[in-house]
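FIELD: query
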Amino acid sequence: MPATVVILGGSFAGLHVAHALLKKNIKDLKVVLVSKNSHFYWNLASVRRIIPGVLKDEDIFKPIAQALKKYPESSYEFIVGTAEEADFDAKSVRITTASGESKSLSYDQLVIATGSHTAGGVPWKAEGSYEEVVDLLKATEEKVKAASHIVVAGAGSTGIEVAGELGYEFGKTKEIVLLSAGEKLINGDQIAGPAANELKKLNVKIQYNARVAETRPSAADPAKTEVVLANGETVTTDLYLPTMGLIPNTGYVPAKYLNENKLVEVEDTLRVKGTSNVWAAGDVISKPRAGFMITQKQAAGVSKNLELVLAGKEPIVAKPLPMDILACSVGRSRGAGRMNTFKLPSFGVYLAKGRTMGLNMMPGYIDGSVA
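FIELD: result
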């Protein structure tokens, strides 16, 4: 009997799995890829795209249809739409297409790869359609250009990279402030000190123990934002860029399959706990944490296990990364990182990540060589 694999999400994990299955040319298999965005978004470079004149939209967006066109039309279907409700017992997902049509998809195997989003109207993740994300990037770029004082809130990897890009370009002409909720950057990770040192070289001011309680328009000048800290201090700025926290896009998943953080619970095989035919990868599980290389490895694991179960075999434990790597670019010439506990040189992080923000890997997701 023909089998249908529905993949929800057209970003790093979802497109990877789609390529992996379609390249195998498995007999009687139909792959249905559902993405709320018509374009593949290299959001790793979003922190650099907001700097005026450095990157163009076409550098970080590619049509997903282009990535799939080399496969036989009968082997796949691409739908621009949003998952609304999943019924794992009935093996169906209700989606709303870009045109507003409600549609029910039946599946034999389901892959959950819908990623996450960030709060605060910032473009670090694709929260809307292609057109909406492009508009948000351009609007943020214009605000960055006009601002003389910018506050970046959240001192995780994204916050460090945003502040680094701003400091590299504007450290001598604008005041850039990075707010860290704790006493150290990036939750006190080993790279906290090196990252702080690199930011200081770019004239970025770091304010520790500065947890944001609320933001509001300034009474004196509504065009400015008042950032109220938990300690009662208020910082007034031209532009407020939050980077705190990832919110998993799992609202359509039945609650019993989620943990207290709304993340999907999975087995070591990356199969969703309590199911026989639902799989998950990427930010929707954030296991061991959210990260590009972790997502890549998980997508490969899901792809391998789908291939096995479609052949009537048992899934295997998905192999994790052989080492824990954490790297942050800090502007367009430096960085901070580690490989397990081994410190990576600043220039080495630049060569590996900061030089291109990974854009050199983007073609692999379009031509399929990533899988």
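FIELD: remark
Residues 292-310 form the longest helix (19 residues).
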